[in-house]
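Feature request, filed as a ticket because there's no other form

It would be nice if the structure record came with a short human-readable summary line next to the tokens. Right now we just get the raw output. Example of a typical job, pasted below so the devs can see what we mean:
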Amino acid sequence: MGKWNIIHKVRYPPFDHHRWKPVSVPIVEERLHIDLAEEQVHSKFPEFVIQSEEGWLLERSIVSNDNEQWNEEPKVLVDDSAFVNLVDQQRRGWYIIPNNLHSVARRLINFAVILLLVTLTYLFIEPILSAFGIPSLGTKSIRLGLLDYPILTVVVVPFLLMPLLLRIIANFIDLRKQQDYFKNPAQSPNIVLESQVQSGKSIRGKCTIPERRDDWKSISIHWHVGTLPPSRTALVELSGRKLDEQPPVGLSTPLPHHWEEGLDDGTAGGEDAPMERQDIPGGVFLRPMRFSEEGGGQILDDDGKFELTPPPTMWPGTVNSELLRIHWELIIKIKRKKNMPLLWVMPVRVQFPSTKVSLNSLVVNDSRTEHFFIGKR
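Raw output as currently delivered:
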């Protein structure tokens, strides 16, 4: 009888993945279990593949020493290992949604840069246009203080400063909302599931809301699945590097953490979330998962019972390893009269389906918190 190996491979999209060619990022490989007998393989959860059109990859495979693929039916469908620390710190409990001004400011940046480049180009070629008798526009000077500036410059500069001003305003609004809400947070809901949840099947249960506040308009419940970033420590060590040396391709130099380390892969450089209170470990904004898909959702009635349909595509069950992290969660969304919605999140341990999962051509989501949404906008 041959011996079998369980191998994890990952080429995870970094924060700003549009700037990267996946083929230039090496695949990190970990041989999780080596030289297993067939009986031992039967006690492990199944293999799967998740990848995008560009080439970002998450794969769990079971291969023999003779490079044969495992093709027997799985007997164990649950990864019963503990949730990783990232789940406990950043995907459990109460969260708020950032102000829409963050998205507006980000869109304005592109417009402002294009306007600046067009203006500089015009000012550069304006003498040539004047030599051909073409009248100039906006090149006359205006005195501000002791210096003269072209009128076009005076017009363009406010557009350049506007995104920065909007981000500052949005950050102060978010900090104020964090302070106001977490002075008196609502009691956590209580969710009881009817049975073990399996990928590809509906989830049923009952949700009890201990309190309902006057500014709450509606309460809905949703669930979705996605991938969480691998451990930065594992990526560095498996790449043959050291944590205090130059990081491998795809990882940025780590920033000082004001809460516990290990909550991300270190590629965002502080850009993934607005300003957050430092006394709340993990932050108060829910990060989008890079590959994800939403299942069903419904408005919660007074009895609290719910039945949510699964995501349209068959996904792997819950996986909690250093490289591969498949995460399922229930989200209660509370729409409020004046403020952005509140979110309450509970991780769910989900069984694998009985068939091998192979997801291809998935779309990579932006990991900025302002892009997170669940249910109808």
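Something like this underneath would help us a lot:
The chain has a mean pLDDT of 87.
Helices lie at 38-41, 85-90, 101-131, 151-183, 232-238.
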